[in-house]
Amino acid sequence: MIPSTNPTSTVIFKALIAVKARNAIVFSPHPSAAKCTAEAARIMQEAAERAGAPKGLISCITQPTMAATNELMKHKLTDVILATGGPGLVKAAYSSGKPAYGVGPGNVPVYIHESANIAKAVQLIIQSKTFDYGTICASEQALLVDESIKEKVVAELKQQGAYFLNEEEKQKVASIIMVNGSLNAKIVGKAPQVIAEMAGIEIPSDVKLLVAEETEVGKEYPFSIEKLSPILAFYIVKGMEEASELAQKLLEVGGLGHTVGIHAEDEKVIEAYTIDKPAGRIVVNAGTTFGGIGATVNVKPSLTLGCGAIGNNITSDNVTVTHLFNIKRVAFGVREMPKKVEGAQKEPALTK
């Protein structure tokens, strides 16, 4: 199952790990990105055939419908499902009767501690958040900044391309983030200038992302949700404990099990902050987009990020080739079970 947010890169990645594990793979594209998903699958199949693969090893549904997707998931030749998409799709995959690797949403909170290298942290955050205009599920969604360094962080963000919305602008942007209680698909992966125009505000042409100060968390506060666009919430905290509590609340809004970030130089703070976070990936001093997918930290490279049981997924791993083959173990006897100890109590005799 291929999402509209990453309709080509996910095809390339999943085709690689499937074929490497000796599987054929069939893609079910999102209707709004069907053409580019099908084209990516075609390119991968042609490349595979040039390398000696059989025809049909990599294929794609050409007319995506929910009925077609359900039939594909339940087909007798389907062995395992990789479900990348919204909660409804993941639930359908888990209900199909087939083994399934589902993944969940990210609502990534990133704590900037007062010991952080502020200029470097901001550079990494902006590079991460603006990649593909924020469509990666591991991208930063909220910054949690120590009160003692607020002014320095704000100044650095502005210097590196962030635009802080005033209260009126914030309300206008908030009004287009959600539609009928869900994320507005029209802002996903759009440039900040496009989003600003949709909201009826003007911003400079060189702005890289929109930032709004926020104090509340919940569905009724659009900046606190996963936005999948170059929009960041900016929270001020009075220390690690407050940041930790706020991060938990943000994850509960829609990112449990996914990813958490922290920028700090104090190792004791890093350990104390990360140890109890309900997330499969804790990214330290790196952008969470590239850290989460394994590009800049030492976790398995993957574009399919599990959220574990806490996120209603079967695994918290970065799903990769090792999840797509069965392991057979040939196990030789190396020890014997001990005999009953001499003098051990015998079973009581049966009596009438």
From TrEMBL:
Record flagged with keyword Oxidoreductase: yes
Key words, A-Z: Oxidoreductase
Record organism: Parageobacillus thermoglucosidasius
Entry-linked InterPro entries: Ald_DH/histidinol_DH, Ald_DH_C, Ald_DH_N, Aldehyde_DH_dom
Sample GO molecular function, one term: oxidoreductase activity, acting on the aldehyde or oxo group of donors, NAD or NADP as acceptor
Protein name according to UniProt: Acetaldehyde dehydrogenase
Every Aldehyde dehydrogenase domain range: 7-160
Cleavable signal peptide: none
